[in-house]
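the four lines:
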Amino acid sequence: MHRKLRIAMIGGGKGAFIGSIHRLAFSMDGHYELVAGAFSADPIVSQNAGEELQLSRDRVYPSFHTLIHQEALLPTAVRAEVICIVTPNHVHYEPAVLALDAGFHVILEKPMTFSLGEARSLHKKVLASDRFFMLCHTYTGYPMVKQARQLIQAGLLGEIRKVFVEYPQGWLHTYLEGSKQKQADWRTDPNRSGLGGAMGDIGTHAFNLAEYVSGLQVSRLCAAVNTIVTGRKIDDDGAALLQFNNGATGVLMATQVAAGAENNISIRIYGEKGGLSWKQEDNNSLQIVWPDRPAECWRAGTGYLSEYATHNSRTPAGHPEGYLEAFANLYRNFALAILAKENDALPSAVCTDFPGSKEGLRGMVFVEAMIKSSQQQTWVEFTH
Amino acid sequence: MHRKLRIAMIGGGKGAFIGSIHRLAFSMDGHYELVAGAFSADPIVSQNAGEELQLSRDRVYPSFHTLIHQEALLPTAVRAEVICIVTPNHVHYEPAVLALDAGFHVILEKPMTFSLGEARSLHKKVLASDRFFMLCHTYTGYPMVKQARQLIQAGLLGEIRKVFVEYPQGWLHTYLEGSKQKQADWRTDPNRSGLGGAMGDIGTHAFNLAEYVSGLQVSRLCAAVNTIVTGRKIDDDGAALLQFNNGATGVLMATQVAAGAENNISIRIYGEKGGLSWKQEDNNSLQIVWPDRPAECWRAGTGYLSEYATHNSRTPAGHPEGYLEAFANLYRNFALAILAKENDALPSAVCTDFPGSKEGLRGMVFVEAMIKSSQQQTWVEFTH
Amino acid sequence: MHRKLRIAMIGGGKGAFIGSIHRLAFSMDGHYELVAGAFSADPIVSQNAGEELQLSRDRVYPSFHTLIHQEALLPTAVRAEVICIVTPNHVHYEPAVLALDAGFHVILEKPMTFSLGEARSLHKKVLASDRFFMLCHTYTGYPMVKQARQLIQAGLLGEIRKVFVEYPQGWLHTYLEGSKQKQADWRTDPNRSGLGGAMGDIGTHAFNLAEYVSGLQVSRLCAAVNTIVTGRKIDDDGAALLQFNNGATGVLMATQVAAGAENNISIRIYGEKGGLSWKQEDNNSLQIVWPDRPAECWRAGTGYLSEYATHNSRTPAGHPEGYLEAFANLYRNFALAILAKENDALPSAVCTDFPGSKEGLRGMVFVEAMIKSSQQQTWVEFTH
Amino acid sequence: MHRKLRIAMIGGGKGAFIGSIHRLAFSMDGHYELVAGAFSADPIVSQNAGEELQLSRDRVYPSFHTLIHQEALLPTAVRAEVICIVTPNHVHYEPAVLALDAGFHVILEKPMTFSLGEARSLHKKVLASDRFFMLCHTYTGYPMVKQARQLIQAGLLGEIRKVFVEYPQGWLHTYLEGSKQKQADWRTDPNRSGLGGAMGDIGTHAFNLAEYVSGLQVSRLCAAVNTIVTGRKIDDDGAALLQFNNGATGVLMATQVAAGAENNISIRIYGEKGGLSWKQEDNNSLQIVWPDRPAECWRAGTGYLSEYATHNSRTPAGHPEGYLEAFANLYRNFALAILAKENDALPSAVCTDFPGSKEGLRGMVFVEAMIKSSQQQTWVEFTH
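prediction for all of em together
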């Protein structure tokens, strides 16, 4: 067991769904210790959250500016090393840049930024920095998602021809923002969410999953993006025809108005030789179909999986892991990569297999392409 | 039990997959007696098929022309009443028109015709005729598909917002036509299949299922249609963004190159209040999801189903019916409609709930729209 | 196509669930023509059923005695060849024996007889006869059940260690016989059903499935058989610990009071090397699990199945068959066996793979063992 | 957020599967801080484990005796408050008793003790103590298991009639202990495992699940317990017919030789009005069937669940939790109960809903009843 990394949070105060998820995720494997936070733009709310989390009062800050500034002044052995940013999208870019500049490793919620311009700038910043940066595309943390990618990399399915990815949710099927429900409120506000609503919030997850598992890149798309619920100011639904850089084609769907749908993000990929499918609802299984022999179900925790899948499991087969463990895998790999470098070792490829600023930038390109294609009713090329 | 209808087949000789399926389907409920056939364009093949089927030699014809001509000359009590046409697409229009003109009821395989022009003409012919006409969109014969339609008609899901339909097959993932395999051979030949390959063969099924269950009509679409297997002369894959006449949107996918996929046509529909899904692989179940209460699984053969679903079942719950029974439902309803009229009764709405020339015409409009949209890379309006 | 066999029915009049199932089953593949019947002990009911079925009036009989007697007097080319007996259990033995004695082939519903004594006697009679005899254990007609048996015969799972079979139904969870519902009425009447209620009705199916798939024989059991619904005169529920002739052990469960359960008979078998499972609800799949490699799903209609499974399918993979097709497989194989013999050919092993009097006798031994073991609260040996 | 409880571990050193699971479970929600341990009977192994876990050297002990003795001498604000015992079964009783006597709260792995006599004695000790005691029947920590229990308590299914519980594993399908694999080694050694092998290891889980969900108590059983793998010294498989205190009956199965099976513990219960089923493989769903309306699937994280289920979830619907979260629920509730009492508050019923010594004693009665019934081939009454 290595030493614990000291982590600070920006955002994640009361009512912030994802804040507590992050804390569960980074606590799980014992690689992090929460030492500081600026949990809200409201100093009182921030302080209350800090108390609730039993932080020392002097490490709870009234703003992300003060957090970054003050923590940087603390002795090396005391100050936070990693800053985790879980604020609404319009407060991603500035703290991320400030944190990197101040020498912190950064973990950032998706979508990477408010605008594509910010994304381009942040990506450059990350490339130029010697700090680690992670973007929280949780679903690529699942062991069977990693196994799927490995099987395709190994050529098991042959050349990839078709990629179908979808992310159906239903929680915004009514005008929930009218009730000021916190999650709905900012996610449906273009001033905080950015160009895309559902496209930024979950479309980017679907997009990232498609590129991660297939190992391909979307080169162009043709989309229909909709605002279905009356009164809403931003998209809550969309779909796109996809074309990939190897000539493969596919479909992406992401919606937040599928009344009754929970969160069953899923992917299916077909190659020349066979196909695979994975869905979050049954995340410990990876289904593979063949034209000429029985279908297979590969299972998490078994002995026949790749190093990538095995490394990202904690329990033996039949003891299901889930979303929190997938999230924890991101955090664990991030920590192992940092600690390896600290020990002058090269982090293994397995540990650096987490999404970064390149994936973040591509996500923002995706959002812009979706909106633009839909508005213009044409195919749109991906350009960075 | 009513008297049996006398049926004649055009097509369906040796190696014709769908021919034996039709015979199983129309035999199941005892409403038909096969009395004549022109089973192949090759008179020898036709005669052999007739023998195999124990038909009287003089009722086995060397061509559909002779069949229609000769049968029409037979005494009313002897001659075929229904002509079932299961030939490749380029031999749909002519026998259908001749048969209707000669006073036969007609059952026709999908897609309705070789070309959209033929479809328009045949539809007019049917409208002007007093004969019954059925197009074999088998999947709407499933009891739980009918139940799905009924639930939507009854407003259970509220206004429909999203329709996702897909039809993944894998049997054409290689250049199967190179081996002259009979099914692949004509289906991939534009001179026999028509404008669409996969789009005509299975895309029309998916399209019909979407319109039947939703009760809506596609008003425009934007498609990407592909020929994926090298050497193939026609599309084997495609997808489209859909827009419906009530403003709902959706996605259609149909592919024959999804290596390892069998035939799991499926549909998901979301309305303001909830969603439903059905897939052929689990055809006796209809899944319904709600935002605020447990998901439901409605099951074939139970006591709580609509008259439409109940009428189209034969076994009690838990005794699974399948594809042949769905097909047989089409045949049975067609017979009951004919027999009701024969007895000067109005056939019940339940019995006339089978696809006809309107559905056939819409299918051909769909095929053309798919190809055109894909070629032009634009949205295409549906016009008849 | 061979000539059609002429079949007569005893039982199966109005309200008899299984009568119409039999007619659907023997009609499906065109091997039978219904020529005669004694559909009820009530001559009027019988005559009405005959009319409904469009039989010639003189071939509809007021009793099974007259049917057997009169048909036997008809010319060879006219008279029924096969007699199908679908009466309540107390009217199994006599017509079966009379029919065999009169030279008819016999198809009999399960359980084979009212009493074990009758079963022993009938089994001897069948062994001594040159007529074919089939007992309707429908579930062994499913292609994937046959595949399961073949895989075990081929040693794929190694020596069999565990057999779990269950048959949960719910339709008798209330005192349905109080309403005189026809199915419940006789099945819960010891004077018509015999020693066992649920044990005879569905326990024998589960027992037969276990022995058929495993290829083993139960050698002893220890049972708890219950009458759960107040007022009922016969068992409606039971379970047993099983021991097989190779030393394997297992559990059998059969109940008709599992409120909400449909008819999902299922089996799981584990050997030294792996396990398999099949359930009727998903009858076109056979699941196989291995300790050291991915689980497999073998699917009906695919190209990698055994001759037994392939012979008992009609549709390509992904076009689900079900209960009626399984039932039709029994009838088809029975016909093919008869026709082969008629042509002085040896029927293939695939065609004679249907349950007979030996299975019927074992079923009756099972029922008696269940009741006796439960009453004595001890293990009971199987003896014939 | 309350203060963290200081916890010490007995057992759980290198190679101990369950040790790391416990640490993941008690770390998840931030209620515990690991402060001490005696991780192995081998002082070197214990010390290494302590280092790995970054414990202070002086809090890592060479034996459980020294741990309990020395920790008790530490100042109140420093010493461990909870002792978690994850040793093989023969080292359960002594440390548990010593720890309670020394004033520690105790968390103990199942089965509770090596022998039934020890269980009786420990149960008395717990009753007489003012310390909290928890037995790790993890599966009752799942939210949908709790929901199942609540639905039954609320009478939704009516009087319970049938209980089927099973626990199939395959990891001991070969003579694994021959390789000295650590888990197999002690679990198959009667001197360390106790009277039961599989019956103690997983049979007790199945038994506990049955009693917890049904709210009933087994009053008698008739079992067949087997040692299937050659050379093994203890049972690796078994099944029993069950009778419950309300007259309900059922079946329990537990095996570790089902080659290919993972860990899919499951339960099905039928009452007068309907039935429910839950299986670990799909732990976020609870299936309910009704005789007269659609089946339902209740899902974790939704808004319609009982307080018990909601309290034991962390994520919204569609973000699957799993085994570690179920385990963490036990730990969390245990902590909340302790902290409530510390604050002079009555812990809520939701928090004290974890298994204790009564469940542990019943488990040991179960093991003895299974073995005895199997040896004597008779029904055995449950007596405490």
